[in-house]
Q: What sequence folds into this?
């Protein structure tokens, strides 16, 4: 199981998808968690999720963690498939909330909220990462290439039985 989670090749295209998706989601998570990049910070975000969107605080914390820590995981390529899955699930839930606003983002401020186009793109890119792995310049790639006699479980002789 661990072998499949980190197994990847050195493909540059998947590295680009992973890093761009990670940077975007990390920035969104940092807005919500830390108040960076003009974001409201944790207290205001939890208030909005709970009072305006009727989302329980525990689930709001999971969504914020998925964006922030999932974004970091994607940027460095560590446990990439888990990070991408957490982001895809978060965006699928967000998609259900935003579907009432239509397809397009609210660029001109004339609707009460944003549509689902952003969420669909993030889900599609996350699925690519889940299926193909981290690609080049990732901790997953480095861990999956360790020699079989190392102490790493992912590179042990049992690894072949998981493929």
A:
């Amino acid at each position: 199981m661990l072998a499949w989670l980190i197994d990847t090749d050195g493909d540059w295209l998947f590295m680009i998808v992973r890093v761009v998706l990670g940077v975007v989601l990390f920035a969104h998570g940092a807005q919500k968690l830390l108040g960076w990049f003009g974001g409201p910070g944790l207290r205001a975000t939890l208030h909005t999720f709970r009072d305006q969107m009727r989302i329980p605080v525990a689930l709001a914390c999971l969504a914020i963690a998925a964006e922030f820590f999932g974004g970091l995981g994607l940027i460095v390529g560590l446990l990439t498939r888990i990070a991408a899955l957490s982001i895809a699930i978060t965006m699928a839930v967000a998609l259900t909330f935003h579907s009432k606003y239509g397809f397009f983002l609210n660029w001109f401020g004339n609707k009460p909220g944003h549509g689902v186009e952003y969420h669909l793109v993030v889900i599609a890119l996350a699925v690519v990462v889940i299926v193909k792995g981290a690609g080049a310049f990732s901790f997953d790639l480095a861990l999956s290439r360790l020699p079989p006699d190392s102490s790493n479980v992912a590179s042990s002789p049992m690894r072949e039985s998981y493929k």
About this structure: The mean pLDDT is 89. The CA atoms of residues 76 and 138 lie 6 Å apart.
